[in-house]
Design brief:
This protein is mainly beta and about 475 residues long. It folds into two domains: about 300 residues, Immunoglobulin-like, CATH 2.60.40; about 140 residues, Cupredoxins -  blue copper proteins (Immunoglobulin-like, Sandwich), CATH 2.60.40. It has five helices and 32 strands. The protein has a six-stranded mixed β-sheet with strand order 10-9-12-17-14-15, with no helix packed on it. The protein has a six-stranded mixed β-sheet with strand order 23-20-25-30-27-28, with no helix packed on it. A five-stranded mixed β-sheet has the order 11-19-18-13-16. The longest helix is centred in the first third of the chain and has 6 residues. The radius of gyration is 21 Å and the shape is globular. About 50% of the residues are buried. Bound molecules: CU-O-CU linkage and copper (II) ion. CU-O-CU linkage binds next to strand 5 and strand 31.
């Protein structure tokens, strides 16, 4: 079957529905914390389920989800708390949970083959770790993630500030891009397609927020809301536009930033990235404001704020949103004495890579493709026995990533957040800490961080087909 997987290969139906068309009644914008935290572990079951990804009346989609749901339950804890989760695997494949963006104890990082063995079907694994940073994080498997995340295994992890900003609603907006066939089912035949792996990754044709088609966020005039936006897509770069309201950014990838207003309400999220926004509902009762995806100049309506008839009355006008309290990040970079590391990203369609080392063997491009390895870092396709670099605990590392490919990438660091120090095609923001860094085609980006978290940490492209196709390595932090 041929599906329209173009650059803006969304289902036309969504585009046509934009504006004032009738919207199906939809569930709550955010599932409130379903899981209390105490000493007993919260049980999360990874299992098959169904989800109404398409509009009501159209078929349900068979998915894999945490607790069978898409997204999985929102896990919510307070900064400094210990999160205990028992993962029960009821899938037909081994799996794990990785806690994306948490500066975590290495043994709990959930990377199959590096920090733990994957949990076989029918078995369980207990995760327990303290969360040092407040912010918006997410969780997903780190075994065959290109398939498991595409099938719906992911959820949001919210870590509350001790004194969170006062808002009337705290709303999760978890975006995903699904490749569905004509029956509305996950397009399984294209799992592993080298055409995707060597190009932009698995792009879908259906955009959901919180697993819903055209999600509606009920609001009242005068409310102040916090939005926690996360891109869980395998590969889709989301160019989002929040229309009509003013949106102030207060955090990026879970870490506070000095507040700034999104110009035209527009923001780009790479797979894995998050942004926290504050918006005041300044329109009149009965109004609506769309949340759109605008790649390639299109305007795909993904959801909307729908005002009810009420108005919130306040004693005093709202002040501009204040910044969040700082997290305990090691912010003091010693760039003068930094350990310098270079990582050259190679491969992909229209690239120059002719050979690379895979599992200790130098292979030509044809043999590499036969092994499903179409990308490399410093001439190595995929994970190696030895780390890319070994950092000394407490020392600053500066990593220069050279994107010698014709594709954009999203480099994700485990166990650490990093600051950009130089960017060949744009300016860096010295006040932003990220766990997932965008590199445009041909771009060189330097980042720095203090290697303060001992263990074995992955560093990979978060376009999951690129990761599986060779864009994966690791570094070690030793005492
Ligand atoms: Cu969100 Cu290594 O992953
Ligand atoms: Cu990539």
């Amino acid at each position: 079957m041929r599906l329209p997987f173009g650059r803006t290969g969304w289902n036309r139906r969504h585009v046509l529905l934009g504006g004032g068309a009738t919207l199906a009644a939809l569930a709550l914008p955010a599932r409130r914390p379903a899981h209390a935290v105490g000493s007993a572990p919260t049980v999360i079951r990874a299992l098959p389920g169904t989800a109404q990804l398409l509009p009501a009346g159209e078929p349900q989609t068979a998915v894999w989800g945490f607790d069978g749901m898409v997204p999985g339950p929102i896990l919510r804890v307070r900064q400094g708390d210990t999160l205990r989760v028992r993962l029960e695997n009821e899938l037909p494949q081994p799996t794990t949970i990785h806690w994306h963006g948490i500066r975590i104890d290495n043994a709990m990082d959930g990377v199959a083959g590096l920090t733990q063995e994957a949990v076989p079907p029918g078995e369980a694994f207990d995760y327990a770790f303290t969360v040092p940073d407040a912010g918006t994080f997410w969780y997903h498997p780190h075994n065959l993630s290109w398939e498991q995340v595409a099938r719906g295994l992911y959820g949001l992890l919210i870590v509350d500030e001790p004194d969170p900003p006062a808002v009337d609603q705290d709303i999760a907006l978890v975006f995903d891009d699904w490749r569905l066939d004509e029956a509305g089912q996950i397009h399984e035949a294209s799992f592993g397609a080298m055409m995707d792996w060597s190009h932009a990754g698995r792009l879908g044709n259906t955009l959901t927020i919180n697993g819903q088609d055209l999600m509606e966020v009920p609001v009242s005039a005068g409310q102040r809301v916090r939005l926690r936006v996360c891109n869980t897509a395998n590969a889709r770069i989301l160019n989002l536009r929040f229309e009509k309201h003013t949106h102030t950014v207060i955090a990026v990838d879970g870490q506070p930033v000095p507040p700034f207003v999104l110009e035209d309400g527009a923001t780009t999220l790479m797979p894995g990235q998050r942004i926290d926004l504050i918006a005041d509902m300044t329109l009149a009762p009965g109004a609506e404001a769309a949340i759109t995806e605008v790649t390639g100049g299109g305007r795909l309506v993904a959801g909307r704020f729908a005002y009810d008839a009420r108005s919130v009355t306040r004693e005093a006008a709202l002040n501009p949103p204040a910044g969040l309290p700082a997290n305990p990040l090691p912010e003091q970079l010693d760039l003068a004495n930094a350990q310098e590391v270079t990582l050259r990203m190679e491969g992909g369609a229209m690239g120059r890579m002719r050979e690379a080392t895979y599992q200790g063997q130098k292979l030509g491009i044809r043999e590499l493709v036969a092994q499903g390895k179409v990308w490399a870092f410093n001439g190595q396709a995929g994970m190696t026995d030895r780390p890319l670099f070994d950092a000394t605990l407490g020392k600053t590392v500066r990593l220069t990533m050279i994107n010698d490919t014709n594709w954009p990438h999203a480099m994700h660091f485990h166990g650490h957040h990093v600051r950009e120090t130089a960017r060949s095609q744009g300016s860096v923001r010295a006040d932003v800490w990220r766990d997932t860094v965008f590199l445009d085609r041909g771009e060189t980006v330097s980042v720095a961080f203090v290697a303060d978290n001992p263990g074995k940490w992955m560093l990979h492209c978060h376009m999951l087909e690129h990761q599986a196709g060779g864009m994966a390595t690791w570094f070690k932090v030793s005492a």
